[in-house]
Structures are given as C-alpha cells and as structure tokens.
Amino acid sequence: MGTLQEHCVSVVIPTLNAVGDLAAAIGDARQSPLVHEIIVADGGSRDATCTIAAENGAAVLLAPRGRGPQLAAGAAAASGAWLLFLHADCRMAAGWDAAMLGFIAADRAQERAGYFDFVLDDAAPAARRLESIVAWRCRVLALPYGDQGLLISRALYDRVGGFAPIPLMEDVDLIRRLGRRRLSRLGTAILVSSRRYRRDGYIRRPLRNLCCLSLYLAGVAPARIVRLYG
Fold this sequence. Notes:
Layout: E1 9-15, H1 22-30, E2 35-42, H2 49-55, E3 59-62, H3 67-77, E4 82-85, E5 90-92, H4 96-105, E6 113-120, H5 125-141, E7 150-153, H6 154-160, H7 170-178, E8 183-192, H8 195-200, H9 204-217, H10 222-229
Parallel strand pairs: 1-2, 1-4, 2-3, 6-8
Antiparallel strand pairs: 4-7, 5-8, 6-7
C-alpha cells in the first residue's frame, strides 16, 4: 500500500467571500488522517473568509481572482503527493475518507484522477432530476465539474499541465486534458449546496451553465464567457 508519505493529501479550496461555508468545509477535510494540509487560495474576499480559514487551521494563500488562477496557485504551494481540490460550499458525505484511501492505494492510482458523485442538499424533486443529469454527463460525456471535487496525484497533475489560469471553465479544461481513460468515480458522494440553484432556478441555472459550456467548446475565450456566467 505504500508509505504514509506517499498517501499524504493536500486539500486546496478556492474562496471568494465564503464566510458562510468555509468552516464546515475545512472541518470535513480535517477529519481524514490522510490530509496533512489544507490550503485556502483566496481571490480577494472582503468578508472574514481568510480569518475563518486561519482560525480553523488552514494555510491562507492570496491569489489572483478566478477559480483557475486560485486553484493553480494553491496547487503550486501544496506539498502533498496527492491533491484534493474542493469548493468551499461542498460537504463530504459518509465514507469519503475510506473511498479516498481505497483509490490512492489501488494499483496504478497515480495514473488516474477521481471525482465524487454529485448530490444536492435539497429534498426538492428538481434536485433529484439535476443529480440524474449530472450522473449522465459524467457517465456518457466523462465530464465531472469542479463542484464534484478532484483527487489527483501530484505526478499526474504536473504531467497534464495542471489548472490553467483562466477565469472560467478551468475544470472542463483540465478534465478534457485528463481524458476518459484517466477518470474514475470515487464511489461516494459530495454534498453540494443548492443555494445558487434555489436562487437562480433549477432550470435557468443549468441552462446558463450549458450555454457557457457550449460557448467554450465552440472556442469562445473564457474571459468573454465569464460575463455571461456572472
């Protein structure tokens, strides 16, 4: 199974005014004995995000605003043999630590990247429909998004070039470079906040995301797409 050092995981969380979610996200990550550091890559929060991160034992890194630049900066500062990228408004479901250990300990694990199943913290039927759509997207298109987390060895992350410093679609960009053969379900869920879907609508927000994805795949620059994303 390798040495403990070979299993060390650095968690990278990009933030921007995430004061309402961050303490819980860090608390989840700290429960795993595999996690030896948590890096909060902040894009210029004006609330107490950085203070909360430090108070909860995370290292705080100031980075240029945008998930791509923030994730890239966090990864560059990380020292673990494995990197786990998480969003601040996501919570870990039961069994996540065992699933992560099983993935890391498997043969040829350093040649693959793992992602969690998408589950919303909302009992509404619309949430279940969206979860089904995301599951289909991952199964058929091999396209998990950043809010599903990404567990990847430092070696593979560096080999494929890591996160591009782009303001949007950084997750799609990296996943496409990894390719279907190097993607695996971790076999447990990540609990995603439904706050944005309840605010923007369970139809309107996914349609907007689909529009952004279509524009990106058509070659439109992320800097232009971000104006539509908001």
